[in-house]
Design brief:
Length: 256
């Protein structure tokens, strides 16, 4: 064996040793320990068999933008048949955006119940409390049944819980214009986030205890509701957008 051949063998062995060192140094030894965080998904449902709010398209666009900015995916549909057990497996939150009237058949109702029972989240915006008013499970989950409202007007909102992600950014008194709902049923088990000062506007029917936003754990899952969001202009308000994002975040299971 020549000297040059020996040197080549030494260099080859050294290369193999160095390559092995770098492979074991920079790559995990147990590939099962490598996990990738699953991107969460929200399904917006905005079918109406009653009054239809002109703010729905703006609301959809706003929530999709919130998803892009905060790393979750958003789909939107008005097809009741999309609410089935197979399709809902891909989502962590279903959001009723000003849906109204009776919009679900019996199979869809079962699918929504199963979705919540599995630990997923529900978000209701504005007229979602005017949706499925005769379905007891739904009305207890969303927390109220719409009764009526006066004309949109300015009013003062009182934030009673600043620890929740949907309200921690809000001032103690939040003044804004919206369509202020009265309710013929309110679930006493919900945790109220925002009340309205009935002395600051005309048409309230609940006195000193008039809630407009709340949340609670329900039947294995989580539910958040806000009565705000009547007009397209609402969705350009940074405070309201953050309020929505916090509600969605809570429904996903994140409180921070």
């Amino acid at each position: 064996m020549t000297i040059s051949t020996s040197i080549k063998k030494i260099i080859l062995c050294a290369s193999i040793v160095l390559t092995s060192y770098f492979l074991f140094s920079f790559f995990p030894k147990n590939t099962e320990q490598v996990t990738f965080k699953k991107i969460k998904k929200v399904l917006i449902f905005s079918k109406t068999n009653g009054f239809r709010h002109e703010s729905i398209p703006t609301g959809i666009a706003t929530i999709k933008k919130l998803g892009q900015e905060n790393h979750f995916l958003v789909d939107a549909t008005e097809d009741s048949l999309a609410i089935n057990s197979k399709n809902l497996k891909q989502y962590q939150v279903i959001l009723f955006l000003s849906a109204s009237g009776n919009v679900l058949g019996e199979e869809q109702k079962v699918a929504l119940q199963q979705f919540v029972k599995k630990g997923n989240g529900f978000v209701g915006i504005h007229s979602a409390t005017n949706c499925e008013p005769d379905w007891d499970w739904y009305t207890k989950m969303i927390g109220g049944i719409f009764e009526g409202h006066p004309e949109p007007q300015n009013a003062k909102l009182i934030v009673v819980d600043h620890k929740h992600p949907s309200t921690k950014h809000l001032p103690e008194i939040w003044e804004r214009k919206d369509e202020w709902y009265n309710f013929k049923y309110l679930n006493p088990s919900v945790k109220v986030l925002i009340k309205i000062d009935e002395s600051s506007y005309k048409g309230g029917k609940h006195g000193n205890n008039h809630p407009l936003a709340w949340y609670h754990d329900y039947d294995g899952g989580r539910a958040f509701y806000t009565a705000l969001g009547h007009s397209p202009e609402s969705y350009s308000d940074p405070l309201f957008r953050q309020h929505l994002l916090g509600g969605i975040t809570y429904a996903m299971g994140n409180r921070d």
